[in-house]
Design brief:
The complex is a heterodimer of chains A (107) and B (232).
Chain A: H1 17-34, H2 39-52, H3 55-77, H4 84-97
Chain B: H1 15-28, H2 37-52, H3 78-90, H4 96-104, H5 109-132, E1 154-155, E2 164-165, H6 173-176, H7 182-195, H8 214-227
Antiparallel strand pairs in B: 1-2
Helix pairs in contact in B: 1-5, 1-7, 2-3, 2-5, 5-7
Classes of the chains: A mainly alpha (107), B mainly alpha (232).
Chain lengths: 107, 232
């Protein structure tokens, strides 16, 4: 399972860069909306996703959300930790992005 | 029939997804290794109440200390109610010390891992229906029967707080996390295969279900994990 800390590689996408960027923005906005506290924002986000990408996308995106509502709790409730070699391998990326300067994943 | 199917579920929702989630609903209301079906259903009810809570308690306030216990079929010990609420609502705040405290307060380690398995399955089913804006199906009635009491041989792990099936630390922490309750891990794998990627396809970075590319799946996963502040 790949969680936040373990995303390391994405294969080439056959779509155009503009299409990928547009979908990326839609997906990011959708996830932020449906995990937020405002039901009206979530309703609008669902309508936008279905309108721009189609109903099959709504189902598949919500399925991935469901999976990681599961896996995040599984990891944190069982005290899951990365192996030292994984932390070592990610050290330069963490340093380059300045991730240790953030007080939390949200801020 | 898959579930007590709400009429609001569109007919075009993938059947493999609904079948895996219906199986999960049956699983969490059936007897396990440490808990009866009624107790597991009560754990699931408590998790659902935590997820539905529109005025959630902060992590440092336990629901039983402020009279916020959920009405369940069978009464669960306060320590279990509080632990389930915390895992469902504030998993990213959990610590090794908190886990040790649960054991000292009377939760058996095998029972804890099984309880986590129930809560995470509830979070999955709830997560799908909540994010899709659909009515969540009700839990089935509890299956009768006693816990079977069979547990794998376990040992301490360095990659998890919880004990894991021996030999420890041969697989990733998230994979061995529920290994002390193998039926719960099997349930997670069934859900993951329909919601995300079948375990045997995990290494295939070009894997796609037809809509989302693998990269887009990981984007959604990463954004959700960040929003939940997943420590891992």
């Amino acid at each position: 399972m790949m969680l936040r800390a373990s995303v390391s590689h994405q294969p080439p996408d056959p779509d155009t860069a503009d299409e990928v960027e547009s979908r990326t923005q839609i997906l990011e906005q959708f996830v932020a909306a449906v995990v937020g506290d405002d039901p009206a924002v979530a309703v609008d986000a669902r309508a936008m996703l279905v309108d721009r990408l189609g109903p099959d996308w709504l189902i598949d995106v919500c399925a991935v959300i469901a999976n990681f509502e599961m896996m995040t709790r599984l990891a944190d409730a069982t005290g899951a930790r990365l192996r030292p070699e994984q932390i070592e391998a990610a050290a330069s990326i963490i340093d380059d992005l300045g991730l240790d300067a953030f007080p939390s994943a949200r801020r | 029939m898959l579930w007590p199917m709400p009429s609001t579920i569109p007919s075009d929702v993938r059947s493999d997804l609904l079948e895996s989630q219906a199986a999960a609903w049956r699983h969490v209301t059936s007897p396990g290794a440490s808990w009866t079906g009624a107790e597991r259903r009560a754990i699931a009810q408590t998790a659902i109440a935590a997820l539905d809570d529109t005025d959630p308690l902060p992590p440092w306030v336990s629901p039983t200390s402020v009279g916020r216990s959920t009405s369940t079929d069978v009464a669960l010990p306060d320590v279990v109610v509080d632990a389930v609420y915390r895992i469902a609502r504030h998993a990213s705040t959990l610590t090794d010390a908190w886990y040790r405290d649960q054991l000292e307060r009377g939760i058996d380690a095998f029972a804890y891992v099984e309880m986590v398995g129930v809560v995470v399955a509830v979070a999955a089913v709830d997560g799908f229906f909540r994010s899709a804006g659909l009515d969540r199906p009700p839990l089935p009635e509890a299956e009768p029967g006693e816990p079977h009491g069979r547990h794998p041989q376990v040992e301490p792990a360095t990659l998890n707080w919880v004990p894991v099936a021996a030999p420890a630390d041969r697989v990733a922490a998230v994979v061995q996390g529920l290994s002390a309750a193998p039926a719960e891990w099997d349930n997670v794998c069934r859900l993951a295969a329909a919601q995300y990627i079948p375990v045997h396809e995990m290494g295939e970075l070009g894997w796609s279900r037809g809509t989302l590319s693998r990269g887009e799946m990981e984007l959604v996963a990463a954004r959700l994990s960040a929003a939940r502040e997943c420590f891992f």
